[in-house]
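Allow me, if you will, to draw on your knowledge of protein folds for a short while. I have a record of one protein: its chain in single-letter code and its fold written as discrete structure tokens. I should value your view on which stretches of the chain appear to form regular backbone elements. Thank you for your consideration; the sequence and its tokens are set out here:
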Amino acid sequence: MPDEVSEEVLEEGCYYLSQLGLPEADIARHFEISPARARRLVASYSSKLESKKVSPGSFDRAFWESVKKEAEGDFKLTVVSDKGFHHVWRSDLLKLDGRSLMALYESSRDFLGMDPNQKFLDFPPPKGYDPLAMDREVRKAVAALRELLEGKEQEQAKRNSSKLK
């Protein structure tokens, strides 16, 4: 079956996700395997590392870190700034101040506003190649940025009201 994940990928994934602190039960649930199998896969990969059959790589760890972030509900967004397109984790955007978020929001929104094909974004993407894929990603980012800005405004309002009391 072509959709099945190879044993080697499962081993590596279980190992790195466990190293990143993801509980065994969560790893098993995400890979749709039993916790006992997840534990065996971690042990197997650890053994391969010790015997030098495989070597650890920073790329591998970074890849599984991004998988973990996505599993936890974080996701990458494509935003536009005066320097071009950027892919950024939503959690990293949370660290920005309101002014920086607003600048990204405005430049991303302006990018969409300049596109004469924007009206086609309301329709589902065609099968195969989507010429508006970048626009669709920026549109998602604009919505997420708007949500983050609203959250920052609410936080500020709460701080201001607590100072008045």
Notes: DSSP finds seven helices and two strands in the chain.
